[in-house]
Design goal:
This protein has 279 residues and is mostly beta strands. The protein has one domain (4-278): monomeric porin ompg (Porin, Beta Barrel). 6% of the residues lie in helices and 46% in strands. The protein is globular. The two termini are 22 Å apart.
Length: 279
């Protein structure tokens, strides 16, 4: 699910979108690049939801960007949400596994003009050894395989980016959620000297056939965040404020909690600190 990293990096380099297609003869030829990153965050948030029960996560990945505009990448993070979905107090006790999220993505980015850019691609969240399909919380409250494939497309106008993702499979194990969509609106600020910020709004809509059992009727929610990032020659220190309106959705209007993470509100407001090294 971390493809937030890729989105943020694409917005931060929005000026590069104009280079591949309508570049002037005096414009430098873009170069291909292979980069790596490794880091840690105090809470891994994806679309406003904690993937680690509000606990820290180790993360890292690799990205290749071809000068033609094509790119591929891999990104990984420790997680706990699949394990926490199971109810160990049930009779008989339930268990689930998958401590790691492995993301693969690839696509093409280019430009329509010096101001307007675009990005299209395919994204896969893969959870090795996951058995989320074995978890159930009663009749109708079953799950499917957690691994998820999405197709996405975005358009940027200067520092403003609009992106839509559509799931080609069930969305992160929720039954009947194929063709769910996520809308992402972001605006990036560059204050110079390696200091940047990103303001974000997102809406997740889930076509869920068993929402009344597994999410108390929640089929869509909004998330909001604001980040501040400082790049010290490849060492990036970040701070993020994130919140959602999950508790206002559904028919019970309750916090988003998992059986294995106690009373942790994984969709509640939070402040996240992160450190990442780019190579």
């Amino acid at each position: 699910m971390k493809y937030k990293k890729l989105v943020a990096s694409l917005m931060a380099s929005a000026s590069l979108f104009s280079l591949p297609i309508f570049a002037q003869t005096t414009t430098a030829e873009p170069e291909s690049s292979l980069t790596y990153n490794v880091g840690v965050v105090s809470d891994y948030r994806y679309r406003g939801i904690s993937q680690t029960a509000r606990m820290p996560a180790l993360q890292g990945g690799v990205d290749y960007v071809d000068k033609s505009g094509f790119y591929v990448g891999n990104w990984n993070s420790t997680i706990s949400w699949i394990k926490d979905t199971a109810n160990a107090q049930a009779t008989p006790p339930q268990s689930a596994r998958a401590p790691v999220e492995v993301d693969f993505y690839g696509g093409y980015k280019g430009s329509f003009s010096e101001l307007i850019g675009y990005d299209v691609g395919l994204f896969e969240s893969y959870y090795p050894t996951n058995n989320l399909h074995s978890v159930t919380n009663g009749p109708g409250a079953n799950f499917s395989d957690a691994s998820t494939t999405e197709i996405y497309g975005s358009v940027s106008v200067g520092s403003l980016s609009v992106k839509i993702s559509n799931s080609l499979t069930n969305l992160f194990g929720y039954v009947g959620t194929k063709n769910s969509t996520y809308f992402d609106l972001s605006y990036s600020f560059d204050f110079g000297d390696g200091l940047t910020s990103v303001a974000h709004y997102g809406n997740q809509t889930m076509k869920m056939s068993n929402a009344q059992y597994v999410t108390y009727g929640v089929t869509d929610y909004n998330d909001y965040s604001m980040s501040l990032n400082k790049d010290f020659d490849g060492l990036v220190i970040s701070a993020l404020v994130s919140t959602t309106d999950w508790a206002k959705r559904g028919y019970l209007h309750i916090n988003d909690m998992l059986a294995g993470s106690g009373t942790s509100n994984i969709a509640g407001s939070t402040f996240v600190l992160g450190v990442k090294k780019n190579f």
